[in-house]
User: What shape does this take?
Amino acid sequence: MDKIKWIDNTHPNHNKFDKCRELFPKGISRHSREFHDEIPGFEISPLKSLNQMAKYVGVKGLWVKDESVRLDLNSFKVLGGSYAIYRFLKKRLGVEKDFTYEELISPQVKEKTGDITFATATDGNHGRGVAWAASKLGHKSVVYVHKATSQPRIDAIRSYGATVKVVNGNYDDAVNQISIDAKANGWEIISDTSWPGYQEIPTWIMQGYTTIVSEIQEQFSAQGVLWPSHVFVQAGVGALAASILGHYRSLLEENSPTCVVVEPDKAACLYSSIKTGDGQPHNFPGDLDTIMAGLACGDPSPIAWDVLTEAADCFISVPDYLAAEGMRMYAVPLKGDPFVVSGESGAVTLSTLKHIMHDPELSELKEKLQLDEKSKVLLINSEGNTDPINFRKVVWEGSKPVPHR
Ligand SMILES: Cc1ncc(COP(=O)(O)O)c(C=O)c1O
Assistant: This one.
C-alpha cells in the first residue's frame, strides 16, 4: 500500500526570509487585490469554516479558502495570469501609474499595444486563466497542453478563444515546446513556472496569487482570528505554495504559521529535491501520471523553490487515493459543515491532514508539526470540478478507494 511520506525542510535557507521579502514586499497583496477587485464580476472567494470536521480530525479550527468559485473559472489560477498580463502591459506601455480595468480594456490602450498573442503551457487551469484574461483584453492566446490533459480541460480553455495544441509528452515537455515556439512566432509567454533568464512574469503570477492571502486575513479578522497556526498548500511547480507561504513569512516572519507543502507521490519534485539534499531543485522524471492533474509537474519553478526552501517547514508526498478521499470528504460534509466542490488537486490537503491526525504511523509527523486540539488550520481548495467526468467517477462511483490493510 502506498503511503504518505514526509521530510523536514533541511535546506540551509530554512527560516531565512530574504527571498520571501524580496518577492512579496509589503503592499504587494494590496496592489494585486486592487487590480482584481476592479474586474467586473470579481468577488472575494469564501473562507469556509469546517467546524465539525475540525472536531472530527482533532484540531481547534479548520478553514478552507474556496477557490472553486473564483470568477466562474473553477480555480485560483486566473489571479496570477490576469495580474501578470496587467503588469506586462504596463511595462510595455512604459506607464508607472496604475491603470483602471476600464483603461486597460480601452481601444486606446489596444491601439498602443497592438495585437499580442499570449502563450503558455498548462496542465489545465493556468491556461484557462490566461485564455480568459487575453480574451477580455481583446488579444489572442495559444495554450500548449500535454498528452494526458483531459478533454473537458481542453474544451474549457478553447471556450475562451485560445488555440490549443496537444504536445506529445508531459507538462515539462509542453513548457519546453512553448518556449521554443513562442520565440519563433513572436508570442509573449505568460508562464507560471520560471527558468533561467525568465523570472519576471512568473514573479508577477505569484504576486497575483497573494490576493488570496489578503482576502483570507480580512476574513479571519471578521471572525476574530488573528492568523492560522498551520497552513497546508498543495504544489505542482510550487508557485501557489510559494506565494501563500512566502507571503505569510514576509508578513509575520518567525510568528508565521507552520507551513506545509503537499505533492502527489507521482510528481513530488519539491519533496524529492529536498531529499536529494544538495540545496538544488531537481527534475522528477516519468509520466507524472497522477489524478492530481494540476500538480503533475516534474520541475520545480526555480523562484518558487527559492521561496519554499525558506518558507516551508515540511514537504509531504502522498498517493492518489488521498486526493480522491479528500474530494469525497468535501462533497459529503459532516452535519452542520458547508458543502465544498473540490477537484483532485484541490482536495488533497484535507485528507492529508486527517491521516496525519488519525494514523498512528504518522504520529511523529503530527508531533513535529505540533498539530493538536489548539491548532487552527488553513487549507486552500484550489479548484472545483475542473474535470467533471473524473469528479463523478471519484465522488459518485468511488474511484481510487482508500486501500485497507
Ligand atoms: C488546482 C490547482 N491546484 C494547485 C496547483 C499548483 O500550483 P503550482 O503549479 O503553482 O504549484 C495547480 C497548478 O496548476 C492547480 O491547477
Notes: Residues 75, 77, 123, 125-126, 192, 234-241, 294-295, 297, 345-346, 382-383 surround pyridoxal-5'-phosphate (CB under 6 Å). Residues 94 and 252 are 34 Å apart (CA to CA).
